[in-house]
Amino acid sequence: MAFFSRNPLCTSTKENEDPKPPKIVEKLQTEINQLNIEWGQAFKDQSQENQKLRDQLQEYQTFKEKHLQDIQDIVEILIDGMITRIERDTGGEKRELLPDDEDQKNLVQVCDRKEQQVKSVQDVLNIIQYGMSIRTSGTTAANSDCS
């Protein structure tokens, strides 16, 4: 008695015989298995590369935090030293550090000055940067005729 399958991939004609897929199916299955292996290896390689990048980023962040804190500490020490000197030089009394807009000798003019409270090193740096950006100069009796 012959067995005929409606499945075109089965080529068995005997009832008791295990159906075997055609060679093209075996070839495709082998290629799929090989691709699975290759993709698995590619995924593993990419995962390892990602981990290396995460480790490098962590090292950079640690380095940056450590040295940024060192710089902030140094600037704070310098500011504290400046404040100590000002207090020492003024005898601890509060006095105006900026000259009047027009002092008696008419040598220095400071326009639109204002006092600002600072709470951090970054505040000081921002104020200095702003001051440098709006700084201007004019002619004086000493250099009005110079080229």
Question: What features would you describe in this structure?
Answer:
By secondary structure, the chain is mostly helical. It has a domain at 60-90. Helix content is 55%, strand content 0%. The chain has two helices and no strands. The protein has helices spanning 23-89, 121-134. Residues 1-21 are annotated as: Disordered.
Provide a concise account of the structure shown.
The protein has 147 residues and is mostly helical.
Strand pairing plus helix content: what structural class?
mainly alpha
Percent of residues in helices comes to 55-70%
Whole-Å distance between the termini?
119 Å
Mean pLDDT: 76
SSE sequence, one letter per element: HH
Count of alpha/pi helices: 2
Q: Shape from CA axes?
A: rod-shaped
Q: List the uncertain runs.
A: none
**Got a strand count?**
0
- β-strand percent reads under 5%
Tell me the Rg in angstroms: 41 Å
The profile of the biggest β sheet is: none
Region (Disordered): 1-21
